Amino acid sequence: MRQHKRVIDVDSGVALVVTDLHGEGRVYDHLRDLFLSRYQAGTVQRLILCGDLIHSYGPEAEDDSLRMLLDVMRLQAELGPEAVVLLMGNHEMPHVYGIHLMKGKFEFTPRFEQALVALDNRRGAPRRRHEVLAFLRGLPLYVRTRAGVMLSHAGAPPGIDDSEAADFVLNFDHDALLRLIEDRMRSQYDLDALKQNAVYLREAKKRLAIDGADDPRLPELLRAELVSQTSVEFQLLWQVLFATNEQDSSLRDYSQQVRRFLQAVSAISPHEQRVLIAGHIPVSGGYATIGQQQLRLASYAHASPRHEGCYVLLDCARPVQSAVDLLPQVHKTFARD
Ligand SMILES: [Mn+2]
Predict the structure, then answer these.
(1) Which residue in 12, 126, 169, 313 has the most C-beta neighbors within 10 A?
(2) Tell me: the pLDDT tens digits for 236-260?
(3) Distance 287 CA to ligand 1 centre (A)
(4) What values do phi and psi take at 145, rounded to 5?
């Protein structure tokens, strides 16, 4: 049995660690093929994608999000859940709850929701919508290693500084939260009235590709609103996945936050965790150390320039003491050799 529901523990092997591909299919194919050739040669044993696999910043025709996600599901079914790992990022999570994610002119979620609904109407589709959603709901938040390196999407969240708080995050239960909200909806809301609400119907169609008043998914927009507006648990999950690191405070304060988070996690983990690898935040040149205990990684979409993106070849067994120890294991996504 896994010690924590949202954690994959890894004790051995070399992992190819990648992050934030954001629907860039060409880059995904390149890194997956790099992984597969080394996997077959026996030099790399794992592919770990640290979240935000989906949601392109480009035009719809170039958005490979769903194809990439289906390919990860296929590869994981083939090689096993410890050989191919996708961590949940802040761009995967919205589809678990049906919430609307936008940034400036980009509305990320409707396009992917429409693609998911289209899966059920596509002949020969390898998976159905409900299977993809179940996969997203089951995603881990962290990988822990014997090396003492913890992999995450967004780094250390604020306020996780004792083992009780860490335990809650490491066991985060989406199903329980959704059930809680659904029970409340049934007892406190007239769900039939939604069918007559033209504004609701329009928003439900736009955001979640809900197909009119008779669609059994009709209450899901209300559920999304209730989760995001009223749930303390959801706010915590938000802080985990949208962590702002040193950008909202200072490097000094954030370094303390990282230290406290890793200490709290270590107290309930098989091995002390001393260094975090995280993506999520743009970084010039594709990587940077953030204090002594975090390596920021951007494999493509968040690297500037993008072709300077990086991946890490992590020896999951050999102890790592600080972030700079990882620098020899950082490589360019597009090597020039
Ligand atoms: Mn991202």
Answers:
(1) 169
(2) 999 999 999 999 999 999 999 999 9
(3) 14
(4) -125, 160
